[in-house]
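Attaching the record inline, Q. Sequence:
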Amino acid sequence: MPVVRRASQSRGCRVRSLSDLFRNFMQLGYVTDDIDAAATFLESRLGTVRSVKHFKSSLGGGLPPVGTDAPRTPFVVVDGVPAEEWVIDVALVNAGPTNLEIIRPVGGAVDLYRGAVRPGEPATLHHLGFRVDDFDEASAIVAASGRTWKQFGDSGGIRFGYLDMTAELGHYVEVMELDEASAQGFAHLEAASNAGR
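Structure, as predicted:
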């Protein structure tokens, strides 16, 4: 049986092939057209603790850094183009070490999420999320495989990219490099889900 690692743990493993991107599973990502209904579904029907919601999260308007010494600023690139506007609502909750993320596309270049929404349903599986230690290393493997990120960016605490595996696997694969504060945030969600168990 494989060892399950918490989101706050580092793998310390070099990324050498696309399959290495799947080594540190941490998240089931869902999309919805109603963030409150989706969170209520997880809480009341699946028995999760209360979701943490973030409304109108925006990464639009920023640009990717140029050079290794450039400061980190939030940005998102969709289909190779920096997004001027990119706004989503997010609800986060854990079931043990597994993070459940619900995204509601709000505005701008968010068709990657909008296209998977089933109107009126609480949530639809969109992506599986995996943690890597080095996003640049992961990006090099993606490029070496002849692929590109469908969407990539930096929230200021999480460097992330979405690999479009919908034709082959039926979903996207999100790859994330977490800074210490983000890793602690996911660890807090895990601790909250385990309280009283």
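The first strand starts at residue 25 and ends at 31. The radius of gyration is 16 Å.

More tomorrow.
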